[in-house]
Amino acid sequence: MKRIFLSALGILSLIQLHAQSASDSSGYKSKKLTLDEVNLVSSYYNQTGNNAAVTGGIGSEKLNDISNIIDVKFIRYDKKNRRHILDAALGIDHYTSASSDLIDLKANSSASHADTRIYPDISYSVENETKGTTIGAGLSASSEFDYKSFGGNITVAKKTNDKNGEFTAKVQVYLDKVSLVLPVELRPVTSGRENNYPTTARNTYAASLSYSQIINQNLQVAFFADFIQQQGYLSLPFHRVYFKDGSVHQENLPNTRSKLPLAVRANYFLGDNIILKAYYRFYTDNWGLTAHTANIEMPVKITPFFSVSPFYRFYTQTAIKYFGKYQTQSATNVYHSSNYDLSAFNSNFLGAGFKFNPLKGVFGLKHFNSLEIRYGHYAKNNQMNANIISLNIKYK
Amino acid sequence: MVAAEYSRSVKLMGNNFTITLVAKDNTLAQKQMDIAVAEIRRIEALFTTYSNESETALINKNAGIKPVLVCKEMYSIIERCAGISNITQGAFDITYGSLDKSLWNFDKTITELPSASVALKMVHLINYKNIILDKKNTSIYLKEKGMRIGFGGIGKGYAAEMAKKLMIENNIKGGIINASGDLTTWGLQANDKPWTIGIADPNLPASAFSYLNISDMAIATSGTYEKYAMINGKKYSHTINPRTGLPVQGIKSVTVISNNAELADAMATPIAVMGIEAGLYMINQLPALHCIIIDDNNKIFTSNKINLS
Fold this sequence. Notes:
The complex is a heterodimer. Chain A has helices at residues 2-21, 35-45, 51-55; strands at residues 70-74, 76-77, 82-97, 113-128, 133-144, 147-159, 165-179, 199-214, 219-232, 240-242, 248-250, 256-270, 274-285, 290-297, 300-303, 306-317, 345-356, 368-380, 384-395. By secondary structure, chain A is mainly beta. Chain A has a domain at 34-67. Chain A has a 16-stranded antiparallel beta sheet that branches. In chain A, strands 10-11 form a two-stranded antiparallel sheet. Residues 1-24, 47-68 and 93-115 of chain A have low confidence and may be disordered. By secondary structure, chain B is an alpha+beta fold. Chain B has 7 helices and 16 strands. In chain B, the strands form 4 sheets. Chain B has an 8-stranded antiparallel beta sheet. A 3-stranded antiparallel beta sheet of chain B has the order 3-5-4, with helices on one face. In chain B, helix 6 runs antiparallel to helix 7. Chain B is globular and about 65 Å long. The two termini of chain B are 38 Å apart. Classes of the chains: A mainly beta, B alpha+beta. Chains A and B meet through helix 1, helix 2, strand 1 and strand 2 of A and helix 3, strand 9, helix 6, helix 7 and strand 14 of B. Strand 1 (70-74) of chain A pairs antiparallel with strand 9 of chain B.
């Protein structure tokens, strides 16, 4: 897209140029060159060293069209010597899930429910290299069948005087719309179309602080602290809760939630081709959930265009105060959930990612500059096992 | 010993040459740099018009009088120049030295252009077709009296290329010969990474607007941002169009990327003279030659095989 845009601009300004210079024409035309004319210049310049002397100018002087592409990394500096970076990304997720089918029992089919999520993301930042400061802002949007999200963020970063440490503060706001897709037996009886679900708001405000430090050539560490405040409809509308009396209800959770994750990450570079990445995160919130995550990953660059990264993640959490299993809760509690994502459990996730970034782009499409396939086996101690394959294509 | 980069800056051919070599030790690097400098001096002596003894001076002195026998090296460079003149429709022309500056001279303070007829009169001796090449005798004859040739548009690129060739023959695995921004690279840096080259931002010549990761490539930039004059609200550059005698306008800078410094050096200014459309049309027909053009409105144009990301 960027490329097409550029040439469209180009054509436009060529027209302008023509209009301007009609009176004082330079006198040069777009001229088709003959093979002889091209050869006269190219045969000398494209010879490698002394080939011509050896062969007496025969054979080796054949014109070969070298179609190597030149890549120019585009960075704009303004008059105050600040660096401007504009980044745009488009993500597409396609997922299938067996349990999504059960929202609507009547429509249950043998094939799993599938959904596609598209999330464009655009960010712009200005870096003042002399002062070591960066100011940036970004917008993102995400849309899927029952969830729309619109986000904005502002980032301020400052490097330490020796440029080895960087402090970043970020404020993020997500304004989301959740469609109230109720379990089918709890839907009000309406005569209208079933697809027209009402929506409700869910807003998330996050303040993030991070500090990264280069310890030496091989070791980098970073610390993260976030404070997240959520307001609005925080339950999932299609989650069912069965009370002791056997009655079925919709999940009900408080309208506010405060979360506090704290994390540390260390990257160790073992030579040019291997990185050891370690990550630990502590999480607590006012619903009573406390969690620990430990992750280790080791990307190994096999060739400049292919890398493999095995990973392992351990995760453990306590249950929220409002959690209860099937037919254990009653109407005496205002809030109740049987969502096992909010129960106490621990999990192990083991797998590997395979990343290809071919020179000419994925499938020869040069804007798709990398493709990553991740496979992992996920096991939760409450009898849930999953094999996860994800595909990530980067568009530049 | 671990290889390191050694450099030296020398004033040669009226330009500041910086030679950077990747070598195992300083003694070896200094010795090779002496050889590179000597090679550039040898070429300078061939092209100079300050001495009456150089082959170039002899050709000019005998314009309209008689052919001059020249060495094979001189003959073949003039032959290549004629080829470049041909494909650029005369925008590149080594007889540019025949420009008659007594009628009108470009400087920053001028307020009006010469008339079309005066302008044409200034350039009437510029015509590469009046260089008569005799391959059998390796002689050069300038047909018109008063005609002059000069290698200002190609000489430093040629010198850089010749110095590079010598260094490769002498087993220097990597380096840069930089002739005031027109440079040629080979091999890798001492840390085994490819050479990175920045292209100057025409609005901010001290900093680069983009970076290229290229080794074994040459790059030359012709900018009109250094010398220009405003005439009736329009910006004109100091480059004179050899066809019309009038200063060139519309283009701020042209960067040419090639595997040969001589060709890159020779092509940059002619593209600015030819204009964006004709210039790009020409470059796109030539193998292993690429260019980036920035016009007066800061719009960027590139040849087909350049990827801006």
